[in-house]
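ingest -> fold -> write
write: protein_1
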Amino acid sequence: MAYLVSARNLPRLIERYGYALSWKRMWNFTKVLASMGVSWIIRRPVVWGHPFMMMVEPTNFCNLKCPLCPSGNGEMQRDRGNMDLDRYRTFIDEIQHHVMLLMLWNQGEPFINKGFLDMVRYARERRIAVMTSTNGHFVRTPEQALEVVDSGLAEIIISLDGVDQETYEKYRVGGSLETVLEGARLLADAKDQRQSNTPLVNLQFIVFSHNEKDLEQAEALSKELRADKFLVKTAQVYGADDAATFLPEEELYRRYEDSPEDTGDEDLRVKGQPATGCKVLWYSSMVNWNGDVAPCCFDKDVDYSMGDAFNGQTFADIWQGTPYKKFRQRILDDRRSVDMCRNCSEGYRGMFSLVKELTGN
């Protein structure tokens, strides 16, 4: 979410999400940045403060079968489930004094958790800005759209990925483009009815070989749907076969160096990726539906477990614990020694997610 916290957008963000700021949170923010700087200088993990951004997974179930998603394609190895609302509330109570932004999604469709909007409301009541990302199949009536607006959700990313059903379902397998478009229309109408600027509705278009020709039409469609932003995102692939099938021809919309379909899986390499360090390990964390803490959302199966936030450990202890310290040191020494980090977009110098503002919000 680099676009959300960029310096260029800071005045607008303060105006829009000023409710998420407090002296405690700003002091924590300062400590985190200072410790990150010290760590980069001495090449040792110094950690002051707590993450000011947090990703929380409401569920890892999904209604679609997207071929590059471990939840949809069946390759996910960890147990499936929905986050318990009471455990979620206890966790939010623990982190509320330092977290400014909560990202409620990970592997799965967040609206499948029936308590999803209760989760949004609970965080919003504690003056935490909340974003989510959805495949767009669960806002089907005006009443549902009003519930989303009334929940206090700050932003919603809706996957578009096509301008006609034939193209759309090549990746969003089992999905209905018309349901997605109607949901976006309903949200725009509900915002008008409530005279609300939120949630910002961001239509996201992942560029593949089969849809790159539709970019201009997708942007025009987003304007027609009264979206606030049109997001153009590059695709993550996991090997040469995926690259040959899905990566577009246009170099701008490929996040990988060279042509991985020619060089093989082991040579998949993100453009301009730093060899050491990762800022995410200082300012953010990932809590999955059952409390398992992972370093970030690229750890799809929690291969690098940091602890369990729901059973006997506080998140503060996990954040300062030995597994996190060892992992930060490993990344400071050699980021490319970790498989998932070689295929990660953090620090990528290129077009990972291009944001086009469509409204003044």
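write: protein_2
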Amino acid sequence: MTQTLKTKVLIIGAGTGGYVAGIRCGQLGLDTILVDGGDGLGGTCLNVGCIPSKAIIHAASKFETVSKAANGGTLGITVADPVIDFAQTVAWKDGIVKKLNGGVAALLKKARVKVIKGWAQFSDAKTCTVKTDDGDIVISAEHVILATGSEPVELPFLKFGGDVISSTEALSLDAVPERLVVVGGGYIGLELGIAYRKLGAQVAIVEMADRILPLYDKALTDPVAKWLTSHGVELHLGAKAGGFGEGQLSITTRDGTPMQLPADKVLVTVGRRPRTKGWGLENMGVTMDGPFVKIDNRCATNMKNVWAVGDLTGEPMLAHKGSAQGEVVAEIIAGHDKRFDPVTIAAVCFTEPEIVSAGLGPLDVEGRDDVITAMFPLAAIGRALAIEAGEDGGFVRVLASKSDHRLLGIQAVGQHVAELSNSFAQMLEMGAVLEDVAGVIHVHPTLGEAFHEASLRALGHAIHI
């Protein structure tokens, strides 16, 4: 027998946008149902994205460190040749995911959010049928929050399956492939390609653009390219991938020459697209903005009391954006006057070395003469040298208005600079000027001193350079 439920708020998708919206709705006393369509609580980020990939990256870095100690020693440390049991590494990663899944479930329960596991199909903007293991459930709601997330883009000539894998499968292999070819030189492909190179795989990267990470300026990406080259990663830039068969990936190089790249696995990371198919979006009457659901600065769609958050709503497709949107929507439904209007949404590439970008970059202000730009090298920071983070060309860069010194953008490249991202975003969000950063006494010895020194340099009086 079909069960029928009515609720104040219905959330479709249990990723970082959906579950955060659910918890905040519960905290605000709103009767809420959250439908988990199969990725698991936490969605892509927690289960097959941000968290597990960073766990694998961490394990890979540890293995690389031990390997260095086994090959001539490092920092006076010498060990025997290390061996990795990758199945155990993946099991450790899965344990972290399971622990976080349990944490999200507990938080939703504490907030009195009803979680239904199953696939939703909308018949109109406020009604859906959820197919569960125990039968169908028809749910009608006063408010609907769409948080269905995104999925990897599949190439028609490199369909996922077998040895052609997406980032999802790359995080759960039972062994390190001897030869890995990565199609796509964006942040996902590079993060995983670098990790597998550290784990001992022979890695090749095929990218259509003329350089890696084409959305970032060359100064930020040069240290990453240097690492790839120095660690024997093949870079095929300006190249197009073709079909895969018999352990060979066909590519066409920049000058039109056909090549065959040997590969045990082909990892396709050419982007992600919003998950708009298979759950009845076409029956809801919402307006689209290209492939995304169109929203205003309240995350509202054109349909009354239908909201959308996260990757479904457009770039940047980042977990922390979805979470922030989810909170905003919950508070609006509860009667608060809220808007989603951030000054910046900082982004991090967990490459080697890491890249952080917040606000405007050089490409955004190209040709303008009203902007001050200043860089400070990590090589001049004591903490960076003490943790082997000062010799890869890393730096912190600030961009500010000449007229009033208002910060416009902040970038960094270097080991461990991801931890500076929140400081960068905070300063931009608060409308800080160069003098604000210069006036903060930064702790010594830390990498954050480079932010201080870059701001001083923009003012014309850096201390340590």
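write: annotation protein_2
The CA atoms of residues 75 and 361 lie 36 Å apart.
The chain has a mean pLDDT of 97.
pipeline exit 0
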